[in-house]
Write a structure and sequence with these properties.
alpha/beta; Immunoglobulin-like; 8-stranded parallel β-sheet; 4 domains; 650 residues; TIM Barrel; Methane Monooxygenase Hydroxylase, Chain G, domain 1; homodimer
């Protein structure tokens, strides 16, 4: 629906509103999608508001909580910027989960226009103001009729004084311009001819976790199943991780099961890929028997809850050859003319252990409902966070529908989109309802490309796309990590944890695991996707992760995406940035070269809001430094120190 | 209405379309307003078009002439740009006046997807393609059913070959990939599951004059009335002017008539301001008796027509104290409580000879209709161009309604907005329907501010805002002209005529008239607004204007706003630019310093499309020069030569 002031008159007998409300922000795709905030956050909305002529205009932003009928309201500010000075801004704060709506109302303030005009006439030396004062008295009397009794008395008295022939013109004008009279009038505006932005604009209020969180990913089969995983939760919590993400926990198909390193055939003991979902034991709603029982799952959820950790499950809507749906609902799958099923492939790559669902099949409604039911089943079992596998290979309309259905009942649930594809689809998934998204971060390892990408994410995309910066995944071991050794892991950990309010690592990262299956591949050698490992939580990078997680919790500046400013360093290998939120400031410098020492001058700009000289403390080792606006010498030597993460002490 | 792909299924039994069409351009304010082109121009539309998965997508732009039901169609091009590579473009050409509409349709090409997939499998060495080939044969047979007989035979034969067990796999694949088979399939696409951009987008096709024209403004009372004005038309046509614009030609009020230099009282012989419209002789539909009769007016229209000149009238919707409407329709005006009428004022400025209409009065419908009738009356009398006085002091909804009403009946009529106010209203008037607009040009006299402003006009605003660069007006004699002498006039004339496809001068400009009413004022001394002059068309700048007008007619590059690129000159006082349209190129260099010689190196960029070395001819004096890509030395000396306007000879 169009976002503009309708020219249709409010009442048939009245002319259309004179006020134009245009270019409201944030409005996504003409109002088709909702912008995102988290509960407690403020949204500043803006619009051009103007009318013909020179009258004084007032504007208010109005907003409404999910399911409520009453509108809240706050005055908007006129942002003066010379010839472009028709921009108004107002602030909304959302304090409940779910879909809010907001609009803008604007009106001509005839009494303020009159005050403005008569003051200028008096200044201009016009002597006879009788007609003008009579007009003012009428406006004051009209205001008195709208006002509450105390204000009405003030306004009526003023109207009498304004027309009192015993007073001088100056006195009569003064009677209308007196502070209490103006204040009383402002409390009783005439909004009968106001214009309203229509229709109202949607705004989704998500839980804080949608914006801010530190993720840890592990395969539970490598940690002793669900029970063993529960045992590691307290340590993860102590390390400052907020979300524990598990790849699919369902039965794994046996037919065409993949062996180690994606081998086409599996040995009898090979566990297969957790993404080949479904076996005789059940499908997407079942647990893999070797991981544990539903009671074990409930216990894991409880343990997570009691340690303030969210459990995130994988939603991978695809089936192994043994999934019950293949026999129960063959109509939900792609068939060839000869009746054979089409397995997943992206030629020449073939995924013989996986069959895609046919989202556009004739029975699509039942299929879509079944997938919603799967999701709601896990919500009922206590899951509040879903990492969605390959959403870009399923119809966008499906996600928009399913996420709206789940969040309509459970607005606390959040969905992370694991899409690695072109920008248009990445952005579209964010708009369609995903609360977080994977990004191109793993492939941005140089200073300039990080600066470009983060600027895009923190400005134009920020209203609908929340990045989750995973430093590695079971599928992505970037060449930078393969060849950079521990300094590369340190650089990436600091970048992930300080560039994005949400970041994550997949286990093995803290051990600096960096051997690819073959040169040129981003796949791990002996990938955990096809094998069970014996994992323990004791890698050498954990202290650094813990220090970063502590700093992230202590500093609001690290909990939001906007408020990011890159700093010049006079060295292309040194990236530096200021993060700000209110008065909280964190400065970060990272040597992105894992092989050589790099030195430079970090130029702290006056726009950082910092004083001319100040003391900073490095959250990574407690070291203190005296810094100042302008250039600050920094040298970062791989093996000794890869980064500074500096909080301002004084 | 929202411009996006609706997720609602086309038929109830089908899943929603998988194709997403998003971010279509040019779409103004979410589809609320129409972009503008002129008849014969091409509009390139674009959008992001994409779907889940890896299927081959096709897209077409479809467009429809005003009042027609049939859609025309052209294929869209996929613009590949790496990760942002989901942009498609297509071209529309409009060949009739009025409001067109366009949309985009996109669909998955299953057969092309299959061809792509099977080719990759063959390349990848997959040996058993039996299932795949059977699938392809089905798709070919389905295409045959959609195709015309000749194509159907080709497709059916191919389907048979694809499944022929006597052939090798390579031969069978080749049978599907053969050129004639592909071509036949492309002619019979399956668009039953296509997605369409909804609703269709509006596009206004205006007459060429809305985009391109040279205007001359004169007060007919200074030229012997309508008859005298008609006598000067042949000379104006010979000088290359396309539009003759007359300030209001109606009876002028006597009460509160202004005297020379805006004096509060007029002498008995003072003619008054033509903008104080209305007297005993009539109002907006009447002619001032001293200018001539309706027959004289008809004769003037005929003279203009026969010389290819458009006559432009002024629409100033305001009334003198003697306008018949004040007595016939007092309800159309603002009254004070004591019954007095409010004259126009912008304190401390007072326009005692003018009363504003109350567009929001109770009887607004009758008032609006009366103003429409005034306009249509002059259309009936042969006027096709209206210069609208101060549209920003009347409601935007009024203009939107009125212009749509006029152009619904007479799409050949164009309206020029004379608004000098803040950007938001200037832009809004363009969107609301004005075909051309006055600009800030007279106040942009320095190189950098001209470059900034022209960039804005020729890019982001170009779809809805057509500038008309008047170098002066009866109200605006800029200080630059007051102090710069003839060189300043030359500079401004060249800039106006070569920076904007539509430009104009108000008579006196060609005589370098430059005396203000007082220091610091932009008003003329002894302004023609309040006095009758004895004008003749013989000013010293006319030869330059004629040369510029000839060049403007000869060069498509000077007839459109886009295709503008500024060039470096290594001198802040030398502005230089390339104008291009197709293969036509014009280079312009202007010394904006009217007092001193300026020299520099005009750096012709490779992006100009010009060869490494070329010959140019100056349209102002015929001088020829050898230029090249890179730096070209230029020296411009006030009094000798203020500018180069260079056409490329070879």
């Amino acid at each position: 629906m169009p976002v503009h002031t309708a020219p249709t008159p409010a009442r048939k007998t009245e002319a259309p509103p004179r006020i134009i409300i245009r270019g409201a922000e944030p409005v996504l795709d003409g109002g088709r999608y909702a912008a995102k905030r988290t509960v407690g956050e403020t949204l500043t909305v803006s619009a051009e508001v103007f009318a013909d002529g020179h009258d004084v205009i007032r504007a208010a932003v109005r907003w409404r909580a999910p399911g409520k009928r009453a509108w809240r309201e706050a005055p908007m500010r006129h942002i003066d910027a010379h010839i472009d000075g028709d921009t108004w801004e107002g602030d909304i704060t959302v304090d409940a989960l779910g879909r809010w709506s907001w609009t803008i109302e604007a009106w001509v303030d005839a009494l303020a226009s009159w005050r403005h005009e008569i003051a200028r006439k008096l200044d201009g030396g016009q002597e006879d103001l009788t007609s003008e004062l009579a007009e003012g008295a009428l406006l004051l009397e009209a205001a008195a009729e709208r006002a509450k009794p105390a204000d009405a008395r003030i306004l009526t008295k003023s109207a009498a004084e304004v027309t009192d022939p015993a007073r001088t013109t100056e006195q009569r004008v003064a009677a209308a311009l007196a502070g209490p009279v103006v204040a009383a009038a402002e409390r009783a505006p005439d909004r009968t001819r106001s214009a309203t932005l229509e229709p109202a604009v949607a705004l989704d209020a998500d839980p804080e976790r949608a914006r801010f969180g530190s993720w840890y990913e592990l395969f539970p089969r490598s940690w002793g199943g669900l029970r063993g995983t529960a045992q590691v939760v307290p340590q993860l919590a102590e390390l400052g991780f907020d979300v524990l993400y598990l790849p699919p926990v369902h039965p794994i198909g046996r037919k065409n099961r993949k062996g180690p390193n994606n081998a086409l055939t599996a040995g009898p003991e090979d566990p297969g890929s957790p993404w080949a979902i479904g076996a005789a034991e059940g499908g997407h709603e079942a647990l893999h028997p070797e991981l544990g029982t539903l009671d074990d799952f409930a216990a894991l959820v409880d343990t997570c809850d009691s340690h303030g950790v969210d459990l995130a499950l994988d939603l991978a809507f695809q089936c192994s050859a043994d999934h019950p749906w293949l026999t129960e609902h063959p109509e939900w799958f792609h068939h060839r003319p000869d009746g054979t099923l089409k397995y997943a492939e992206n030629p020449p790559k073939r995924y013989q252990d996986i069959y895609n669902l046919h989202f556009g099949c004739e029975d699509w409604k039942a299929l879509w409902q079944a997938l919603l039911d799967v999701t709601l089943t896990w919500v009922d079992r206590g899951v509040r966070v879903f990492r969605v596998d390959n959403p870009h290979t399923k119809p966008l309309a499906f996600w928009e529908w399913m996420i709206a259905e789940v969040r309509g009942q459970h607005p606390e649930v959040i969905f992370l989109a694991e899409a690695f594809t072109r920008q248009a689809m990445m952005r579209a998934l964010g708009k369609a309802g995903f609360n977080q998204s994977y990004t191109y971060f793993t492939w941005k390892n140089e200073r300039t490309e990080l600066e470009e990408y983060l600027t895009e994410l923190s400005t134009e995309m920020a209203d609908y796309y929340r990045p989750n910066f995973f430093a590695n995944t079971p599928d992505i071991l970037h060449a930078y990590l393969q060849h950079g050794g521990r300094p590369a892991f340190e650089a990436r950990l600091v970048l992930a944890a300080t560039l994005s309010p949400t970041y994550g690592i997949y286990s093995g990262f803290e051990d600096c695991e960096n051997v690819p299956v073959r040169p040129g591949s981003e796949e791990y050698l002996d990938s955990e996707k096809y094998e069970t490992k014996a994992r323990t939580l004791d890698g050498p990078l954990l202290p650094m992760a813990a220090a970063l997680n502590r700093a992230r919790r202590a500093h609001p500046a690290l909990q939001q995406l906007p408020g990011l400013e890159f700093m010049d360093t006079a060295n292309g290998q040194l990236i530096a940035y200021v993060r700000r939120a209110g008065r909280d400031t964190v400065l970060v410098v990272v040597n992105v070269d894992p092989h050589h020492p790099q030195e430079g001058l970090v130029n702290v700009p006056a726009s950082s809001g910092l004083p001319p000289a100040f003391t900073v403390r490095d959250v990574l080792d407690g070291g203190e430094y005296h810094w100042r606006l302008g250039g600050n010498y920094v040298r970062l030597t791989p093996g000794e120190r890869q980064a500074h993460v500096l909080e301002v002490v004084s």
